[in-house]
Each structure stands twice: as C-alpha cells, then as structure tokens.
Amino acid sequence: IEKAHPDVFNILLQILDDGRITDSLGKTVDFKNTIIILTSNLGADIIMNDIQKNKKITAETKDAVNAILKQHFRPEFLNRLDDIIMFKPLEKTEVSKIVDLLLQKLEDRLAEKQLKLEVTQKAKKFIVENGYDETFGARPLKRFIQSTIETMVARKILSEDLAPNTTIVVDEQNGEIVVK
C-alpha cells in the first residue's frame, strides 16, 4: 500500500469510513460486506532480523514497525484499519505445499493434452530452495516454475512427438533441473 498514489488513500478513506464509494458519474458501489486486505513491506527488514534472532516477532518489533507505519501513513488512515497483522516468513513445509499446488496446475494443463507429469522429490526440493525468496515471499516460485520447468517441458513437447499418456519426468541432477 505504501507504493499507492496519494489519491488512492482518499478513496480508501471514503470506503473505510462510509462503506461505499461514489464515482464521478454518481454511481455508488457498496463495500459494507467487503473485506479489504492491504499489504506492505514497511518494516519487513526489522521483522526478518527479529525472527532470525528470536525465532518470533517480539513486542518490541511490533512497536518499531507500528512506529514506521505511523511515520508513513496519516493517522486518519491507520485509525480506520481494524487490525495490522505481521507475518513471519513461510517455513519450508509451507513453501513445499505451494510448489505442489503450482505443479498441480501444470499437471492439469498437461493432462488436457493427454500427457502426464512426474516431478521427483529431488526436483521439488530444488524448486523450494531456488525458487523461494524470504524477502519476496512465494511470488518468485511461480516465475521460477514458469521459466525453468514449464519452459523445459514445452521444449520437450515441441522437440519430440510424444504419444498420448507419455509421462514427462522432471528431476534434479548435479544442481540442475532436467526433463526426461
């Protein structure tokens, strides 16, 4: 939210205050049954340092991050927020579950083309270790899978005439992803 244009805050204030917004044509949109989630990276470095040091987010860190938020945002904006939740980075098991979900989408797309995908545990571990970034969260995972796994699988499909129900195997060998 800290990257938003200042006009966005005025609109958000109207939504958070009145539970509705009216556009320039007089059309009103009701937000009374809406949950609005805002994200920010303000104080992320403080949170990361605290977690590395204390394995949790301490009260002191919460106070420090809240002080940064107060410096950056107007009081009338912060006062309209119901809660500010500080998240710790994802654990490897959680990242692994996200990888499984992303790979399942690829498997489903390949199944439409009558192809099967098998990703070894070594390959999944490689994806978790190389595709996840504590600073940026899980977003880089999708790009990593697209730029490595999907690209390599697509090349395999284009370079070979694969019979229906062929299983494409994704593995890790010598620190690299391979597709067989």
Structural class: alpha+beta
Strand order of the largest sheet: 3-4-5
Q: Helix segment count? A: 7
Query: How many angstroms separate the termini?
Result: 44 Å
Structural features, described:
By secondary structure, this protein is of the alpha+beta class. It folds into two domains: 73 residues, no CATH class; 88 residues, Orthogonal Bundle (Helicase, Ruva Protein, domain 3). Helices cover 53% and strands 13% of the residues. The chain has seven helices and five strands. The strands form two sheets. A three-stranded mixed beta sheet has the order 3-4-5. Strand 4 and strand 5 form a beta hairpin. It is flat, with a radius of gyration of 22 Å. The mean pLDDT is 94.
Quick recap:
With 180 residues, the protein is of the alpha+beta class.
What's the helix and strand layout?
Layout: H1 6-18, E1 20-22, E2 28-30, H2 44-54, H3 59-72, H4 75-78, H5 92-112, E3 115-119, H6 121-131, H7 139-159, E4 166-173, E5 176-179
